[in-house]
Queue: 2 jobs
Job 1
Amino acid sequence: MKFLRSAALAVSSLLLVSCDFFGGSDESQEPSATRTAEAPSQRSNAQEQAQDTPFVFQRTSVREDRIQPTLCLHFTKPLDPSADYEPFVEIERSVAIAVDGQALCIEGLDYGQEAELTLLAGLPSADGERLERDETVTLTFTDRPPVVQFAGNGIILPREDARGLAIQTVNVTEVSVRITRVNDRALVQRRITEGFSGAEGRYEYTPYDEEPGELSSFVYEGTLETPGARNVLTTTLMPVEESFGELEAGAYYVQVSDASAADRGESQPARAGRWIIVTDLALTAYRSASGLDVTVRSLSSAEPVGRTMVRLISQANEVLSSKVASRVGRVRFDPPLLRGEVGDRPKLVVVEGRGGNFAFIDLDRAPLDLSAHPVSGRQQAEDVEAYLYTERGIYRPGETVHVNALARNAEGYAADDRPGALVLRRPNGLEQARVRLDALEKAGSAYAAFELPKAASRGVWSAALELDGLGQVGSVSFSVEDFVPQRLALTLEADTETPLALGGTRMVEARLRFLYGAPGAGLRVDGSARVERQPNPFPQHEGYSFGLHDAPYRAESFELPVVTTDGEGVAALPIAPEDLGEGAAEPLRVRAVVRAEEPGGRAVQDDVRIPYRTRKVYLGLKPGFEGSAEREKPATFELRAVDGDGVPLSTDVRWRLIRRDYEYDWYREESGRWRWRRSKRIVTITEGLAQPGADAALVSTPELPWGDYTLIASHDGEDLASRGFWVGYGGRSADGTPAPDSVRILTPDEGVTVGQEITVAIQPPYAGIAEVAVAADGILSLEHVDVPAEGTEVTLTVTEEWGAGAYVLVSLYTDRKPGIQPIPRRAVGAAYVPMNMDGRTFDVALDMPELVRPREDLTVTIDGGDIAAGQEVYATLAAVDEGILLLTRYASPDPEDYIFGKRSLGVDVYDDYGRLLDPDTGEMGRLRSGGDAIGGAGLSVVPTKTVALFEGPVSFGSDGEAQIDVAVPDFNGELRVMAVLWSDDALGSASAPLTVRDPVPAELVLPRFLSPGDSAEATLTVDNVEGAAGTYNYTVSTESGSIEPVSGSFDLSAGERREASVPLTAGDPGVETYTLAVEGPRGFSISRTYQMETRGAFLPERRYARATVEAGGGYTPPADLFDGLIPGSVSTLISASPTPIDRASLSNSLLSYPYGCTEQLVSRATPLLYKSDRDDRETRILRETVETLLERQGPDGAFGLWRVGDRSASPWLGAYAVEFLAAAREAGMPVPEAALDLAHRALQPVSMGELYRAYGYDTRIRSPRYTEDTQARLEQRSSAYSLYVLAKAGKADRSRLRYVHDAQLDEIESPLAKAQIGAALAAIGDRGRSENALKRAVATAGYVNRGDWYQTINRDAAGIIQLLAESGRTEQAAALYFRADENFPDPLSMTTQEKAFLLKAAEAMARGRDQAFLTKDGSQTQSDVLDGIPTGERYDNAGDETIYVSTLTEGIPSEAPTATSQGIEVTKAITDTAGNEVDLTTLARGDRVIVKLTLNRAEQRRAQLVVTDLLPAGLEIEAVLDPGDAVSGPYRFLGRLTRADIAEARDDRFVASVIRAGNDPFSFAYIARAVTPGSFTLPGAVTEDMYRPQIFGRSASREMVIAP
């Protein structure tokens, strides 16, 4: 029985995959596409039988379930799928032939036909055998399967003069008809769709809410005769009067089916269902923030219909409001009615007219698509909107962000006296800071200066203005990153419009200038270019795709030559792709990245994108459907041929339609594991010839069944375009709701003013009645106008409501003419009319010199132009280094363009003209009635400075000016000075460059850091821009004297710039201050200082020693503990403890842990929670930990492992983080109550054992192949910990807690989880259950789960000790504590979890044994911190008891550590950008290299790994490569790259973390640039398992030499 169940599961799995149930992956579990899947013995028998069987034609079979029949000729042996069988098949018809295993399948014949086919002798099998003689077969096909469907996609049937309802059939002589009606008020419970069509023998599911069901009442049942030719689609009109009777307005549901199917024994006949709305009324609805405007008109005459009852119906079927339409058929519903939620949400607008007329608009449907009209712009605000700006777009952590907000109403006037707040939000969207505003003052403005945390997360931050009652009304975003300002401005000029031809060359001019004003002469310029697909190559051919969809061009790169700028700072680079891209089917482009090298080696870059055409003809395809094509219907495409400029060509284009069929073979490995492999076959369905010209050619396929299809277009025998598509799977035609015709509207060319009368010209596509609306944030006016075919003009009066501008909307409707124009036509148009805002715009000018000297005071005068007397005007002024602004291409604040600029159309337009049925299509049929009526870490300093100044808001004086003093810093460059002005009714802004420089700018360009032993060449540049000609002497020195002063001189003529190399040699790690002094003619003298860090060349090593010191004994740190460490880098902690568990060493070890996932952050900061005497550094670390954790909290309250929303943290880790934050809040840290409450709420489903509802956490357990963990274990430990954390907060579900104890405690394997249940029960006062749970926890200690990263025996023991003590069971805790403390390893061998939990245990059990002292030089101390290597220090135990002394030291190795592999290997390969290995001793400044790190694990266990690659000081990272760059990009030679969970390019290192299972190698890569000449240590890359320190790998260190 067990075997049968297993077999049944295997078969069901096979069926699911063979049916491609999950969408069909192209990946196979085996590389082979062999389709044989027998067991070995079966294969052997089959092979023996095959050898005895001759290759002969065996039988035929016919598939009749498709639009065209398929005949398959079966042979006794498999055929060759790659062979051409057409020469061996004779038939007097054009057919398509495809191999299907042992069958040759023929397509292209029609139903009801007979044909003769001959298989010729010599037809080969797959193994080379041949058919011995000709075989002739007579082919006879039956008729097409029956089809029943409705014509078109409409649902609205005009009530007056409607001849009938069009039914389409194939091979159906009569259909059964059933009509029901649904009460108007019940429509809100249904979705009114186009219904369904079902083929014979096929089950069709219709959603419950798309059928009338129990809401319907019977109207009619009978049959309709549908005569027609065999196998031909026939349209028959079902007579309205005979079926519907007197055609009453309302909602009907019509069902039709093949009446004769039952006679053939078919239980699933061909059938269709369709909603039909019978009405003579039409509605147009305009929805906006100002309300809902509705107009009613007649479908027959297009005239407005007044005095009708219009109701707004909610989702809950309640009448929200009823109003009688005005004489011109207009009704308005106020905005509050539209703001309801859930059941109060507006659903329908229903109109009831005279004579029972009825119509409705469903507000859940999409509004009209007006994207073809000029309605784009800034989003409309509902009431008040705010323009927010900062002084720049990028900041470093710890800097101050100045935010100013200007709040305006819909007309652009100040929104004063509104209370609210300015809010600063972190990249995860959570609040960092809030400044409360009692009211908006100073003409509706608000200002705040936000200081960023020094540990601010990198990423995009935002600031927003929130107003009470309105929420957020405006926001601004900015980046927080480690950046270095540019010194150069790079401008590129090239022809980017004319396509570059194959083999051609295009010149790019690069113009460089130093930001302090001098030309960038004598500088190196190079670059690289990539030939790639051009997105949207021909915008004039919207919707077309060019090229082969499944064989896209793979990008190729080439390097640009190195050139040098001339005396004016100009260089020309040729872009010559030569023959790259030759043969590509799609239009290409060349993206050229041009890099200019600053003095010192750093690069600034920009790019140009040039169209690139490698052929003369391109083919494009545009589908006539959205998503998938509809089943059993033709799929249509538009086909175009164009030249390289997109100009249409007249030419012959061959096309063919193919289908991809997939088959899956299952087989069983010797291990018993089932695997599968997939094979694919291509079937040609049909082909044809198209002749596109000025207009596109239409390609229409046959009616298609379910499947995966591709349309391929070729020119001159070469495939140039293809489009893959699915048939079925929810497809619908793109013309289901026809786009309206267009009305052209002509408006004034210039801005208009209030009170002005303007003329609007209407140029229609046909005559009709126009509804002319003026719209801003809502409908301002509406009128109806008769429009003749030649057009007309309308006069409109501009009012103040037009604000900064308004739209004119025209909807043109025609009447309905039965028999001539059975469907009334509708056309729409839109045009924007801007207001003239000259009177509300300040003419701002900045009065300041063009050039100032550094270190001087400057007064900037802001002139507001013609300011009216008594007008209160305010301003802000910012002056920011242009080199910072260029990094983000920051645009100066421009509030007038934002507030007074064009806004998007804030009105959605609804009507149902696109859902009208044609009641005149087809021949009238005869009805017959009858039947029943029943149914983290980095550099501490970098040698760069941020220059960004901000002042304001300030008030203007009575003279219309404001004067602001600016202290110009020590800086050579360009400041962009930006002023913003505002008053109650006006806005203005201006910006201007301000050059800041010494007469002779001098700069020392240092690397970002050095390492001990490095020798480097800094770059000194002295530019005599405006100084006297002569000798300039310079000296470079250090504060500590670590290098000998370097002196020299330049003889400079006017305008000359010279560079010199300054040799640097790095000493011990630390921060050094460099001073540059320059003196020259006429008393010129400057002095500038820079700070640079000497960072260790290798990651620090940590070493540990422990000794027992008896009473009266002494201790001297062992000298060999410090062997091989750089003395200046060594820091040592010597501490005493009364027990072997040394809390000081544990704390120090945790606090110096380098990495920072959420678990490590919490564990690292845990010691600080227990210190009442934290110093400033410790308080800062604790505060920054809290801030970082909160940055990783998502809106759902869950915490990410590395960043917000990464869903990589387990729910257990979530509980760990929440427990820490709660304790930090009790310790006085700034943990917002709202954030903690949100975190507790995220733990609630975890505590209930409902991990599937813990959306923000990773609740999955991977394959048992990679872990010993189980889903049950994860749920048990996560639920227990969450219950404990919630119980401590008073938020646990008591009944759930008791239930877990009573019913599940025996099932819980983890002793720590049992102890947490016990402690949680103690927290709610249930001591009996608590005692039992804790006792069981102690009894089961020793549990091991290697699949849980955080679990060890020692961690669990320490946690149980803590919980016992916390629950008041100190004796039990003490017994376990003293039993366990001798078993704990030294801190360097512990995981962060072990250290943190052990520290908690030590704190809980320190009573009576919490102090031990050492005596040094007569003074007692518990611990001693030494900088440098100890030199014989002695520590004595002057007490009466034995103490334990620990020595924990950290230092940088003086020699390169050897390569090692302890369970994991890491290798580092360095190549050039083309993949060639580079000689690291012959690099030159400006060279770019790719560093590839490959990791190889020895085991398959799932683990969290981190890799750290310290940079040599001469390299700087340009970019971290994405896996996509190595797949289809220019770096394919790298092979597959891994996407890291987190990857950072820091100043001095690359760091990545990844969770990985299995032992397949995986790689990361980044691009670096050689910046600083010199000789540098190239450290080895280091990787480790973050929770098993013994799993560790390091690559070899090398030397790198960079030539100038």
Job 2
Amino acid sequence: MSLIMLTIFKYVFRGTTFVSYILTLNVSRISMLLIIYIECMVNTMNNNDSGDLFPKYNFLARTEPAVIRNLTVTEITTSSVSLSWIEPLGNRSLFRIEWTDGNTSGSQNTPETSFNVTALTPGVQYLFTVTAVAGDNTTVGQSKTVSKYTKPAVIRNLTVTEITTSSVSLSWIEPLGNRSLFRIEWTDGNTSGSQNTPETSYYVTALTPGVQYLFTVTAVAGDNTTVGQSKTVSKYTKPEQPVDIVATRRGTSQLNVTWTLRNGSVEYYSVNIFNAALNYRSSNTTQTREASFTGLQPGRVYEVTVTAVAGDFRNQSARVQLATNPNPPGPLNITERTTSSLVVQWTIPGLMIGAQGISYNISYQLNGTGLGERNQSSSTTSLSSNLTSLSSGTCYTITVKTMGPQNLESTSVYASECTLPKPVVNLTATPLSNSSCKLQWTDPVEVKNYYTYRVQYIKATGPVLKTVSTNFTQVNDLEPGTGYNFTVTSVAATGSEGTPERTFCNTKPNVVSNLTFEGLNTTAIRLSWLKPNDHKPTYSYLVTISKNGSVVEISTMVEMYTFTNLTPGNCYNCSVVTVVQDVKSDSTETIICTKPAVVKNLIAIGTTTNMSVTWYRPMGQVDNYTVTIYKNNVMEDNRTITNNYLSVVFQNLKPGKVYVVKVATNSGPLTEALNVTNATYPNPPGGIMVVDQTTGSINISWARPLDMDLGQYSFSVFHLDRQNLTEHNWTLLKNLQSGTLYNISVVTVGPFDYQSTVVTTAKSTRPQSVIRLIEAGITTTNVTLVWFQPESKPGYTFRVEVTNQSVTTNTTMKTITGVQSGSNYTTNITITGLQSGSNYTFTVTTLTGDGTMATPVTVSYFTRPFAVSGLVASTVNTTTVNLTWTKPPQYQSGYTYRIQTEGCMSAPTNRTTETGEGDLISELTPGTRCTFSVSVKALNSIEGESVSTSQYTKPESVNMFIYNNGSNSTIVVHWEAPRGNVEHYIVYLNKVLFSDLLNSSIRSTSFLNLSAGRSYTAVVTTISGSFNASSEPGTTATYPNQPGPILILEKTTSSISVEWGEAPLMTNTTFSYLVTYLSTQLNNKTVTLTNTRHTLPSLSSGTPYNISVATVGVLGLQSEKVWSSLVTTRPESVQSLSVVTAEENITLTWNKPVDHKPSYHYYVIWINSGLIISNTTTLMEDLIIDQLVPGSLYNFTVTTETADGTKGAPVSNSICTNASPVFNLKCDSPNDPKVILSWTKPKGLNQGFQITAYETNQPPQDQAHYNTSGDCTPACGHTVSDLKHNTDYTLTVTTLGCGSSSTIQTLTCKTGVNAVIGVAVGVTIGVFAILFIITIALVIHWRRQTKKDTSDIQIHSMRAKVSVAVRVEDYEAYYKRQKADSNCGFAEEFEDLKPVGTAQAKTSAMAMENKSKNRYNNVLPYESSRVKLSIHGSPFDDYINSNYIPGYNSRKEFIAAQGPLPVTVNEFWRMIWEKNVQTLVMLTRCNEQGRVKCEKYWPSETKHFQNITVTTTSEIPLEDWTIRDFDVKNVRTAETRSVRHFHFTAWPDHGVPETTELLINFRHLVREHMDQYSRHSPTVVHCSAGVGRTGTFIAIDRLIFQIERDSMVDVYGTIHDLRMHRPLMVQTEDQYLFLNQCAIDIIRSRTGTNVDLIYQNTAALTIYENVEPRKDTAKNGYHNT
């Protein structure tokens, strides 16, 4: 600030007077500009030159400092703020800094242009003021201000209070100072978030599970900009729980486990697997979502947990049970077979002893195509199965596989076995001959077309077996007259044979031999014969003689019989048969006759056409004669002549024929004839003609004679005193001289050498022909001939003819000059002027003097042709060369050319052609040099000179093969050597020469290191000489490379998304991918793609698919496939999930998901209070979940799972269990009108109690209910007040819950009474007691009087009707009374027996482990009387469905048992052994009306039943029962016992025996054996269930003893006793009636009123077996079940 001097003056200017001013300056408020202005004005005034004088007033003042510039805050902390600024204009002394937060203030001076304000409060807004101060430290300039917040302080004690999978709760303590809000920031390194809050805690949400986050908390000042120092903390969020733990691949010793982490990530997974039973535990650590465990046991359930680990957090999954695949069972063995069942056994699978939850699936179907019977399957936990309801004699393929936990299956074990066929029926045997019998039968029931039948019988040489496929057979080669026992067994397959059926047959004895007869006279004939060669002393003979239907039979033991008193002249039929045991041999027959006499001196004389017959009369009586003439055994004429005539003439016969004339003597019905034979004479032949003449013979012929049959005559030819006989109408007269005249005659010769008249003629022979006529020289124009004449006779000449086409030259010479050699002459001649290459015929004929010609001799010759010219050879192809030449001079149209080829064939060949100027020579060897020679040939093959040349044939192309051998880098070219020769080969690949000249011995070449998936074309060229030939191009391709592995990306219910690696090294070529997906239903689908990812659409839900990908290259070649096997689509969710609640269990039901598969199962979990209580897997659509807490809320989730563990979407339902009722409900009634209730707190949870009370004797709806709520604080109870005195009240207590209330608990209580009421009640009770005593006395007196008036029939009643005993003498009347009104009395007795014994315990029988041992679920043995076997390991080993039953002699005299099942046969025989049973009674057939009633537990021969071996030693089948003997051996002790088996077979199904006699007799038979062998051991009796028929049989035994020893009958008491030991003994009312009928029949038989002991039960009853008679059936009517 400047010091200013001011002058105050008064100034008058131009008449104007200025007012004087006093200027008062407030220095501190004057601006610098004003100060400067005033100072300038003053200075101006001081320098005024006007000369005016002003009075001056001087004073000293300072100006204000200027405002500071650019005030800024350079640094802010929680407790300080640093200010800085620029100096103001002008001067200043210092700066005054002032600050305030509105409450507290501070100031400080500084000479500097900056200042650090300290000791501030954090997070508070301060107003900072900076003012320049003048040197007087008083004058200040204008201030400059700035407002700023201090930084808030750091928050304190930042902690994480709660961490979940997606959230973190942060909390902290307020920082010192102030703050406006807090900024929370978090990051996981990739994503970040922030949020502001005014609170000291914050809940950070939407985090990723299992991730490490850095959390930062910063205090923010009120300007929302100024922040304090941050506080950080690093924490992991909790990882999510791994879910969907499944086994993606499993084996018998391996599990591959995968799981899903739906959100977030983890550091790693800890996978644990354990099995407590095996004491096995193992763990893996992995960062992937897959773990593999090996070395596991097959068919075991392992508990698997997967723990997600992130930082310090571990989230363990729910325990999941995963199972290994079971091993297959051991080999199948058929231990027993029947006509309708097969018992198959197997051994425990390897390494699976002790495995839990193991069962076996047994399925079977008909062998072959499986048609005709559907596949049947069942399951069992035992090592055997009885396949029942099978067709008899049928072969089945049986499949057994182990079913392990979680429905896992092993591979299957197979066996093909057959049931037993049923036996043949209606077997009969008929003798056919002396060595054969015919067996015939009806096919068995359910016969199959592959059945065969084994026929067995015994001959002297030993047993004979024969197999046939028809229902009949003929047995041959038997002994005559011998009896044979035949057995016929139906056979379906090896080891599958029906029950043998037997029959008997006696063969016929042999026939008698040499049956002869001797006519003793006209009325007697003696028959005789020889014994048959098999004669036995038991043989006799039946001799039969018959005539006109009249038969006489005579039986004799000797071999001769004489018939007398026969009619003369008659014929009789006689036969003789051998007889043994009414079986007759074939008959030996003959005819015996008495004969009339024949005519005498029979004569027949004939001509050419007639025959005259004459005879003398025979002796004896003749009625007439029959004369018959025969020709060739055919009657020509027949005449009957009376006995007055002795001749006859037959006319118009054929000449030269033999005739037989028969003259028969007819006497009554008999005829005796005599024959005579003669012939007619033949006719003469026709005229003689010369057919041919030679030098030594004459061939003549003549016409055949008229009216004569060819072959019935011959001819005789005469010449030169010679005679020739012939059947022909010609003859050759031989050995004649040439040129000689002969006389010849011929006659016809007929039968008996009768001859006709003679025919004659004269003829000559020919002269000799010339010989050796040949050419002596041939040229192109001349031919020289020469010949010889072998004889010379006077008059011989020669005629020579030369012929060329139509030109003929004849030369006749009488004498030809020649050289004579003996009688031969040699002659020659040269014919000239002929044409070349022409054919000429030369004929030379010898002539005799009379003109008879010798046989001409002819030769033909060609003149030679000229040679060809200009021969040229041109190659045409591999086997053909074209030859050309010029025709020769004087060419003839008949010329041919002979072409000889050499060098290119295996041998020189000649070829003839008619071509004029060339020819194609074919069939040459390819690729070979040939030499050709051509010569001209005339028609007779005469040749001219030859001309030659040479040439090559072309080589053939090879037959080339190109193939890749399945390789992706190699191609092989192979060829076969072509026909012919090849000098070299060359090979081209894709038109590029890939080889040098290859030797002709090479046949293939390979090309290596080629590219995959490319097409290649090869050509092979052959070379020979200057020629070559290329093969047809052959194209193939290398295989493409295989794609990479398949990755499953996603699965839905209808699709699977897959991805695979691209095939390597496949650039620059065309290829695609063939994706194939095949479900187990075999609906194969394919798709072709060019990319490496695809979604398989339209798939079936819950279905496993085998997916493969192959690279498809050129030519459609496919690489090896890569596979992803059994990838299963997600199944659909279950439908309509519903819940039925109970107190401690809940029943879940649901409908099958859409497109349900049999392999599906359901994974069920239930949650309570957010915790998984348990889980299970089931195959059914319902599930009972027990062990729940009553009155609690549960959430149930049902998830469909496929066999490989693929899950569908879960379906959930929440509901509460029913509240549990109270118990120990008690009441206390003080002498007040109220009731005090107390009870024990019910199980589970409850929401209070509802109590009601109403008068017991009044309807509840007419009363006011007392409704209130009880509780259990501190004890459970409630007081019901405002009731009436001395009144019965019904009180109810109902537990209330979150769902359904409990069942109502009811209690009746009486309120208290006062004293007056008590006395009145006491008196009343006393009076009533006296009256009651008097009433009882009167009743007793009345009953005694009544008893005296009843009938004499005594019925003894014991302990509330446990017995109805009747004396024998009274039983008849009792029986009639009870039987009256349709058996009404007996029906009432039987009705009273129904509840007897039923309250007894059946603990062992109802145990789950023993259920499969019971044939019927309503016939279970009582615990008190059941038969207990020894225990061999399991506590259930002692169980068998049987009870000890008291008999007359002992309380354990009998064991009543059910018929053994396939699974209990071993226990049955163990019971027989352990109880020392020696008598065994069976009252049922194994099969009745197509139902299996009992397993056939005994063997045909020997069979093992664990430690017991049973051998059938004998079997005696009778009409109504069969008796068998068994040897039963204990293999451990080697002890053997005998057991007799009494099998009653006459008890009809659904009925009772037809008569009481049958069962009573059978009982006597059994009792006899029991008394001898079973006095100290029980007798086992069984039917099917072991109650109906079994109880009836035991009751009959006791009744007979009662009648015989006690003279009492107590049917009711007997059944009552039996039913106290086994339920349902004597099961039906009809059996009860039958027992009473037995009793009356026995009594009547003893008294003589029923000697036959026959009871006709015409209404056979419904008897069995777990089926009650219909309620609507009348007492005397019956209904079949």
